[in-house]
Design goal:
This protein is mostly helical. Helices cover 77% and strands 0% of the residues. It has one domain.
């Protein structure tokens, strides 16, 4: 009898879950059944809103960025100044007159930026350092979300309050992060496949190249489809008493009918982040080169590696804030539909 009751409860729970899903596999979904409200500010307006929100509480977030940078510097380390100096000198000696003039200096700084931003001066991290980097990033994410949730609710909290209180759901957040990594596996397979196909000449043309690009595109789309709701789950799981599966389920229900529009906002977030890196880092690299040309002893100062570290801290806080405020806007739109 008890088994029948459990089976009945599980069946009813599954039917209730399906009732919230607007799409069925191998069945046509009419537009009227899946379109949901998405009354949010435009891309630029929302970006400005996020920037103004962070600026409003800038003292708190500046302290958080400094703390993130200090912990990363002590426990993980920064890029090698020696490697950066070597790359810069090699570029100067091999380029000849190619980088003369203002545009040439900008082009040279752009190449150095691409090299440094893609890990060209990063040293191989040990397993312990990789774990430290992951924990620091997760704690910064949770602290940012906790601070925004409380500050926007009108509570007077300090950065230390967030540090002491935000870490409670670290295990649940870590599980969601693992799910996020697993969901990126199709994208990783596409990248590995591209590297292998490039080295073997498979992409030179023909049916094989077309089939590869179709398969790679499907893998990328699959990862993007999954991670769109997982971003929101990373926020939802920080709520008190929230379990990972429940957070994933709630996030999935939240994005139904507007997944693509939310995904476009997330892609826009990364585009803005990349543009900010270019705007900030290229002038820093130019200034560093100018200082080294005047004072050769300054080549030992890790100006660029430290700038990369600080920009990394700012980026984590920016992305955490953007995702949280986007989540808030979507929830508010559900609560107060137009």
């Amino acid at each position: 009898m008890a088994k029948k009751n459990k089976y009945k409860q599980a069946t009813e729970k599954f039917k209730k879950y399906l009732s919230t899903r607007t799409h069925r596999s191998f069945k046509r979904t009419r537009r009227r059944d899946y379109v949901r409200s998405f009354q949010l500010p435009g891309y630029f307006s929302f970006t400005i809103y996020v920037a103004k929100t962070i600026w409003k509480y800038r003292k708190t977030f500046i302290l958080l960025a400094i703390l993130y940078s200090v912990f990363t510097l002590l426990m993980v380390g920064i890029g090698s100044q020696d490697l950066y100096s070597t790359i810069s000198k090699t570029l100067n000696t091999t380029s000849g007159d190619f980088f003369n003039g203002v545009l040439g200096q900008i082009g040279k700084s752009g190449l150095l930026f691409l090299t440094t931003a893609t890990g060209g001066i990063s040293q191989t991290l040990t397993e312990a350092q990789q774990v430290y980097a992951g924990i620091i990033t997760l704690l910064t994410w949770m602290t940012t979300v906790w601070l925004l949730r409380n500050l926007m609710a009108g509570h007077k909290v300090k950065m230390r309050d967030g540090l002491y209180s935000a870490g409670a759901p670290i295990v649940a957040t870590f599980i969601i992060a693992l799910v996020f990594i697993v969901q990126l596996l199709p994208l990783a397979l596409a990248v590995i496949g591209y590297s292998a196909a490039s080295s073997t000449g498979l992409l030179s043309g023909g049916v094989e190249a077309m089939l590869f690009w179709i398969a790679a595109l499907l893998l990328v789309v699959l990862s993007l489809y999954w991670i769109t709701s997982t971003f929101f789950a990373m926020v939802i799981v920080t709520l008190p008493g929230m379990y990972p599966y429940q957070a994933l389920k709630t996030a999935s229900e939240l994005v139904i009918g507007r997944r693509l529009r939310i995904l476009m906002r997330i892609i826009w977030m990364f585009i803005v982040t990349a543009i900010a890196w270019v705007i900030v880092m290229i002038p820093i690299i130019i200034i560093d080169s100018w200082i080294v040309s005047l004072f050769s002893a300054a080549s030992s100062l890790p100006i660029v590696p430290l700038a990369l570290l600080i920009m990394g801290a700012i980026s984590v806080i920016w992305i955490s804030s953007y995702i949280y405020l986007l989540y808030r806007k979507v929830v508010d739109d559900d609560t107060n539909p137009a």
